[in-house]
């Protein structure tokens, strides 16, 4: 078991490499990964179940202890990234399916990878976990509402269908994870130790499936989508940091806001796009997953060298 735990930690620490590697493989030999398309939603549910296994009461104490900072993070997450997505779609005059895909990933909550990146950047991990948890729990209502508001001019959007989907693949698995954690107590620790391995394998499979299903479209317009994804993520990271500056937060919290805002739950974006729109609409989420793990790791390397302001 210790070997499996060590493997899990290694795979978790090299997450970006595996996502990039299998995205390339899926593009080169799509037929090998097409069977994974039917597993996109169950795999996302597995990731969310893992999140439920790890959530603790103290993760939400930050909300009560420093509600202002958590509120700023939640508002920044659900205003900056959706707003940037809509603006980029307009500026680049994106085709309908791609535009909806960009807006969809912009309207998703923060991803759990942001917590690891925040730790590496010497940010405020407690604040990061709180913002990720709160935005994830708000996602069943907020994410479909934002997508309906911003993407309806390109394609028809059903708020109710997306609401039900997010309940099924996000909230329900989290609740089941919380119940299992409550019932099993310390016996769940072994499962938690290998969660990085399960999460990485699941995200890699989701990205590979989306890339394989849209290989021809990526070959045709992949550079355009990638340019939009890089801009979306980079501007999100920058404006997240700026939100911390404007609200007078110390350095550790500014780092956290930058990472929380710029890194999305792209797995959820890919699952929703595949279920409600088309494989092409899932491509921005897949490419975002590849890119934001690379950019997040690079940014964290830079941020951790900054002199940390411990004034809380």
Automatic annotation (TrEMBL):
Pfam families: SBF
Annotated TM spans: 12-33, 39-58, 70-93, 99-120, 127-151, 157-180, 192-216, 222-245
GO CC term (a single one): membrane
Primary location group: membrane
UniProtKB keywords: Membrane, Transmembrane, Transmembrane helix
Highest taxon of the lineage: Bacteria
Protein's membrane topology: Multi-pass membrane protein
Localization in the cell: Membrane
Family annotation (PANTHER family): P3 PROTEIN-RELATED, SODIUM-BILE ACID COTRANSPORTER
Protein name stated in the entry: BASS family bile acid:Na+ symporter
Source organism: Phytopseudomonas flavescens
């Amino acid at each position: 078991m210790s070997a499996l735990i060590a493997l899990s930690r290694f795979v978790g620490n090299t997450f970006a490499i595996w996502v990039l590697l299998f995205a390339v493989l899926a593009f080169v030999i799509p037929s090998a990964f097409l069977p994974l398309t039917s597993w996109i939603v169950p795999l996302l549910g597995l990731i969310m179940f893992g999140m439920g296994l790890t959530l603790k009461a103290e993760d939400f104490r930050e909300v009560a202890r420093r509600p202002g900072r958590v509120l700023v993070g939640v508002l920044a997450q659900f205003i900056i990234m959706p707003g940037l997505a809509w603006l980029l779609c307009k500026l680049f005059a994106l085709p309908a399916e791609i535009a909806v895909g960009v807006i969809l990933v912009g309207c998703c909550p923060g991803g759990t990878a942001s917590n690891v990146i925040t730790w590496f950047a010497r940010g405020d991990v407690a604040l990061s976990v709180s913002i990720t948890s709160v935005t994830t729990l708000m996602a069943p209502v907020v994410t479909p509402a934002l997508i309906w508001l911003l993407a309806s001019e390109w394609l028809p959007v059903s708020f109710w269908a997306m609401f039900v989907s997010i309940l099924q693949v996000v909230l329900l698995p989290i609740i089941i994870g919380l119940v299992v954690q409550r019932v099993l107590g310390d016996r769940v620790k072994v499962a938690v130790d290998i969660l990085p391995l399960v999460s990485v394998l699941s995200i890699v499979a989701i990205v590979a499936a989306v890339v394989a299903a849209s290989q021809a479209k990526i070959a045709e317009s992949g550079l355009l989508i990638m340019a939009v994804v890089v801009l979306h993520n980079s501007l999100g990271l920058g404006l997240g940091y700026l939100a911390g500056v404007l609200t007078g937060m110390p350095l550790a919290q500014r780092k956290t806001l930058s990472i929380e805002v710029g890194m999305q739950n792209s797995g959820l974006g890919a699952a929703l796009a595949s279920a409600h729109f088309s494989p092409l609409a899932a491509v921005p989420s897949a490419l975002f997953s590849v890119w934001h793990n690379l950019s997040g790791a690079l940014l964290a390397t830079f941020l951790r060298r900054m002199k940390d302001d411990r004034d809380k």
